[in-house]
């Protein structure tokens, strides 16, 4: 009898999930699409560590951010060093940019990455504590045209993925020249409201009042409707950058809406901030699927030279719901035979020739299942072609190729040899049929 005290739960940890065959193929399609789309725009893939030094995220995101204060998975290693599972990719990409001296190359350095990220937050539909994200970063250009390109690449990828009902929300939160004045103006307008606001907003009032506008408490948002907007306090340089961005997005026919209350929850953002918000009912009403902006001060805050940059992160978990579930196998040929060793020999030969192939394995013993059951399995998996090697084929040194799509079959005699089935010409014949 199993000891209850030693029983291990087979349920994955809360906020995580198993991605099983059928859905795995959807992920592969989406990841392939992401690489194709971003590489076509000149972005190159970078692969970042799963964990980083905790100080990297504290310095970049800000001590008062929700990520640092509430959501990071932080641990101490055997040497006593504080490490954190990456909660976002921009800081890690910036570190890699500095560590590899990419700044010496002709700018901009255009990068993208994909993979798992980790945040301890409320679990909702399409939101997990281990989640998958596609990120884009461009280091070295201060041009608003760079912002427009970053947004256009995100939009193109989402369209290719099947998202049709969405709008790009944009705003400008200014720079180090104009933001201090706006910060003071915002505090003045919020001073009297402070006692009625949530605890987080009261904490942010002194440290970073701009982040109060990112509050998720509905009652607080109601009180922010008439406060000054950062877009109305821009300096001349930020105003020029903003006008150019909106003009270019219009020229690119990218639908956008100005959201004067839009800010990002991390300290490193400057000027352009944006979100892609979906109205697709499959993703839920007004669901943000991508978000980002410009962060011209981040590299310098990490000890590097002043380096303008822009980027975004895009959640892949929600987009998976847009793709149809796979119902077919990922192999081209299913080998059906009365002898398993012959079936494996044929499948191996086809694989070596670059043709995907599989065969039926019995649950126990070495005897193959009946030919009928094997054919039923091939049909269930949706294999386009079946290679049949029954007793008659073995005796004649032949194989039967059955096209499951056209319901046609033909005998193939690769070689005049009565003692075995020759495999020499079989791959070429299979390729002709496929």
Please tag this protein with its features:
Rossmann fold; alpha+beta; elongated; 15 helices; 434 residues; 2 domains; 5-stranded mixed β-sheet; 8-stranded mixed β-sheet; BirA Bifunctional Protein, domain 2
Please give a structural write-up.
The chain is of the alpha+beta class and 434 residues long. The protein folds into two domains: 11-178 and 234-322, BirA Bifunctional Protein, domain 2 (2-Layer Sandwich), CATH 3.30.930.10; 333-433, Rossmann fold (3-Layer(aba) Sandwich), CATH 3.40.50.800. It has 15 helices and 16 strands. Strand 3 (73-76) and strand 4 form a beta hairpin. Helix 5 packs parallel to helix 9 (236-251). It is elongated. 36% of the residues are buried. The model has no long low-confidence stretch (mean pLDDT 87).
In short:
The chain has 434 residues and is α+β, with helices and mostly antiparallel strands. It has 15 helices and 16 strands. The strands form 3 sheets. It has an 8-stranded mixed sheet, with helices on both faces. Strands 13-12-14-15-16 form a 5-stranded mixed sheet, with helices on both faces.
């Amino acid at each position: 009898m199993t000891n209850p005290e030693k029983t291990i739960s087979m349920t994955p940890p809360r906020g995580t999930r198993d991605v099983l065959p059928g859905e795995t193929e959807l992920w592969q399609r989406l990841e392939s699409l992401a690489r194709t789309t971003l590489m076509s725009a000149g972005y190159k893939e970078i692969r970042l560590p799963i964990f980083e030094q905790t100080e990297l995220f504290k310095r970049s995101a800000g001590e008062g951010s929700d990520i640092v204060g509430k959501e990071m998975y932080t641990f101490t290693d055997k040497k006593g060093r504080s490490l954190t599972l990456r909660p976002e990719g921009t800081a890690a990409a910036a570190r890699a940019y500095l560590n590899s001296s990419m700044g010496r190359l002709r700018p901009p350095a255009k990068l993208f990455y994909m993979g798992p990220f980790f945040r301890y937050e409320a679990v909702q539909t399409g939101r997990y504590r281990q989640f998958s994200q596609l990120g884009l970063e461009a280091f070295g250009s201060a041009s608003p045209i760079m912002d427009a390109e970053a947004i256009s690449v995100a939009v193109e990828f989402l369209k290719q993925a099947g998202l049709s009902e969405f709008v790009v929300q944009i705003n400008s939160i200014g720079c180090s020249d104009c933001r201090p004045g706006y910060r003071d103006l915002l505090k003045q307008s919020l001073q009297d409201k402070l006692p009625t606001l949530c605890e987080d907003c009261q904490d942010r009032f002194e440290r970073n009042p701009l982040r109060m506008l990112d509050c998720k408490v509905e009652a607080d948002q109601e009180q922010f409707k008439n406060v000054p907007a950062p877009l109305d306090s821009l300096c001349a340089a930020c105003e020029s950058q903003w006008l150019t961005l909106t003009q270019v997005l219009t020229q690119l026919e990218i639908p956008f809406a100005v959201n004067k209350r839009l800010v990002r929850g991390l300290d490193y953002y400057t000027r352009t901030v944006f979100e892609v918000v979906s109205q697709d009912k499959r993703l839920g009403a007004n669901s943000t699927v991508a978000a980002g902006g410009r962060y011209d001060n981040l590299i310098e805050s990490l000890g590097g030279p002043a380096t303008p940059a822009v980027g975004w992160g895009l959640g892949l978990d929600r987009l998976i719901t847009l793709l149809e579930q796979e119902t077919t196998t990922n192999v081209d040929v299913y080998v059906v035979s009365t002898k398993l060793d012959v079936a494996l020999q044929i499948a191996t030969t086809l694989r070596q020739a670059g043709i995907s192939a599989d065969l039926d394995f019995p649950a126990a013993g070495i005897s193959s299942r009946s030919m009928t059951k094997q054919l039923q399995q091939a049909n269930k998996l949706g294999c386009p072609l079946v290679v049949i090697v029954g007793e008659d084929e073995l005796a004649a040194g032949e194989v039967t190729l059955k096209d499951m799509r056209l319901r046609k079959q033909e005998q193939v005699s690769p070689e005049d040899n009565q003692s075995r089935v020759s495999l020499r010409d079989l791959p070429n014949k299979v390729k002709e049929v496929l």
